[in-house]
Structure formats: C-alpha cells, structure tokens
Amino acid sequence: MAQKIIIDTDPGVDDAMAIFFALRSPELDVIGLTTIFGNVHTHLATVNALRLLDIAGRPDIPVAHGADDPLAVPFGGPVPFVHGDDGQGNVNLPPSPRKAVNQSAAQFIVEQVMAHPGEITLVPVGPLTNIALALRLEPRIAQHTKQVVLMGGNAIVPGNATPCAEANIHNDPEAADVVFGAPWDVVMVGLDVTHNVYMEADDVAEYARIGNPMTEHVAAILPHYRKYFGDNYGIDGIYVHDSSAIAYLLDPTLFETIRRPVRVDCTHDIGRGKTWPALGERVDAPWQNRPDVTICTKVDSQRLVQLELNRMRGV
Ligand code: RIB
Ligand code: CA
Fold first, then answer.
1. What is the pLDDT of residues 131-142, one digit of tens each?
2. Mean pLDDT of all residues in the chain?
3. CATH label of the domain that carries residue 164
4. From the CB of residue 141, how many other CB atoms can be counted at a distance below 10 Å?
5. What per-residue confidence (pLDDT) applies to 281?
6. What's the 198 CA to ligand 1 centre distance in angstroms?
7. What is the pTM of this model?
8. Ligand with minimal distance to 14 CA
9. Domain count of the chain?
10. What is the atom index within ligand 1 of the atom nearest the CA of 39?
11. In which domain, by residue range, is 253 found?
C-alpha cells in the first residue's frame, strides 16, 4: 500500500519539483499539502500549492493554509531573488479555481494523523511552524505519526540563510527546537546532504525534453532559480533541497546517517537558527532527555538525481 504523506511547503521552485516528484511516485499517496511562509508569504504559498495541483491534474488533493508568522517573531520576508516575486520563477500562473479547505494547516495535520494512527508521514520542506502548532494542539500526534522527514538544518556544514543557519530552520528556530525535541521519529535531510546533490545543466535541460505538464512547468521556472545558484555558488546547475526529502522516503539507502539529539539556537544573535547535534561523546544538559534524530550526512547524488528524473519520465 502506498505511504500516506502530507507535504508542508512554501512553494518555491524546489518545492514544486519535490511535490511533482512525490505525485509521480506510486509508492507515495499525497493526502494533502499544508502551506507555510518562507520562500513566499503564506497566502502566496497557498495560491501556488493550488496552482501546482492544477498543473499536476490532482485537484482532488486538499490544501490547508498555514501560519502567517513564526512562533516568536514576525516573518522576516520572502526571497524573490531566489524563487521570483511569484515564488515560481516569475512565470505568473493563472489563479486556481479552487480554494484551501476551511481548516488551518495545524488542524488538518492533527485531524489526519489522529484519523490514521501510525500511517502518516509528515514531510515539512519549509519552516516548521505548522508542525509545532499541530503538536501544541494535540501532543498525541507525536505517538501517532509514522515519521517526520524534513528538509532543513545543517549539522556540520555552513548555513545558506546565514553563515550559521539553513533557511527553513532560520525562519522559525523556536518551532524547529520543538519539533526536534518531540517524542517521534524525525529524519533531518539538511544542507549536509542537499548541498551535495547536484543537478547539472544537462539534468536541468531534461525537464524540457520530457514534455509533460509538470516537467514543462519546472522547465519554465528553473531559469530564475538557476541564476541564483550561478550567481551565489558559481555552479552551472542547482542543488537539490526539497526533493532530497522525497528521495529519502523512496530509497533511504541513498543516504548515510547518524543518530543524535538536536538542539536549535534560539538566541537573537549571530548563531540564530543553527542546528546543533550532540556530536561528541558527551550529551550535556541541553541535549539530555531529547530523542535521537536521524541526521543525513552523506548522499549518492547521481543515483538520487536519476531517481527523480526517472520518476518525472514515468519510469
Ligand atoms: O534551505 C533550503 C530550503 O529553503 C528549501 O526548502 C527551499 O525551498 C527553502 O525553503
Ligand atoms: Ca521549501
């Protein structure tokens, strides 16, 4: 039976790629999208989630609108220089005829998890605010969620939002610290691996060659995103963030992992948003009584990229 997942997302060019990758994978049953600020404001994330499902021909999948701000401070603002003013590479899609469901993202997550205990995997690929709010609403979801496979964080590599912190975690460190500390099975697919998953120019060009509505949309939105990577990382291609979390669900043997408790820097200083695994032999007080998190440390980039492209080809 296909694995039921809820993708919590801030679409976002790489979010769109990840959503399509999941929808093209028969092992996965996407039972809903929940939206969050990050690459764009939450209202645009919701509009984009609906538009992406229209493109995919999946208007049956519900979208639930999420939090507009982080737990502790106002949202710092979107990143149009990465994802475009519209979050989709400035292609300005028409609005969807559909609307979000009449439930918040947190309510939707709680209702679904409690209705299907032990069956649902949460896949957050944006800031973790909705997940923390769902835990606040119903702490028992920690026992009844199958797994949380999230894109975010940096264990031993630099950040991308700041020299210390990865963007999703930096956008709501307080929420991330709650999620890493709850008694459930969390997998962190962070920059330690995603900055080593590289889609080169020819892989990117493959999207246009495959020629279905989803790959055509990705081909249209990638040039803006790719320019960001060229300008900032000097690469002729892109790093694969959110799709790496989908790949973990499909084939965890693509990754090497370690298991350690994780704390998040919630200070309002230069380290804000840094994820700190207890890496040494000692587990000092701030990490004690916290569950081990599965942290991805290495990845087979070529095999992951081929898996994603094959799924988009329908193989
Ligand atoms: O740091 C990469 C993450 O930040 C990805 O989820 C990307 O979509 C942005 O949200
Ligand atoms: Ca994202």
1. 999 999 999 999
2. 98
3. 3.90.245.10
4. 24
5. 85
6. 15
7. 0.98
8. 1
9. 1
10. 10
11. 3-313
Which two structure tokens, joined as six digits, stand for 25?
Answer: 């994978």
The tokens of 32 are what?
């809903």
- Asked whether the bond before 12 is cis by omega within 30 degrees of 0, the reply is yes
- CA dihedral sign, ordered 271, 243, 197, 142: positive
Catalytic residue list contains 241: yes
Q: Which of 86, 177, 241, 265 is catalytic?
A: 241
Calpha distance 78→40 (Å, rounded): 5
Find out whether 167 and 194 touch, Cβ atoms under 8 Å: no
> Which protein residues have a CB closer than 5 Å to ligand 2 (ion)?
10, 12, 15, 125-126, 242
pLDDT tens sequence across 80-107: 999 999 999 999 999 999 999 999 999 9
The first and second tokens of residue 155, run together, are: 């264990």
Distances in Å between the Cα of 255 and the Cα atoms of 166, 272, 303, 314 are 19, 27, 10, 23
Residue 190 CA to ligand 1 center (angstroms) comes to 10
C-beta 241 within 6 A of ligand 1: yes
| 33 CB near ligand 1 (under 6 Å) | no
**Among all ligands shown, which has an atom nearest to the Cα of 225?**
1
The response to whether residue 38 sits with its C-beta less than 6 Å from ligand 1 reads yes
Alpha-carbon distances, residue 311 vs 63, 161, 246, 306 (angstroms): 23, 30, 11, 8
Residue for token pair 């769109």 = 16
> What is the rounded end-to-end Cα distance, in angstroms, of the chain?
19
Pick the closest to residue 40 from 166, 99, 127 (CA basis): 127
Which residue's alpha carbon is nearest to atom 10 within ligand 1? 126
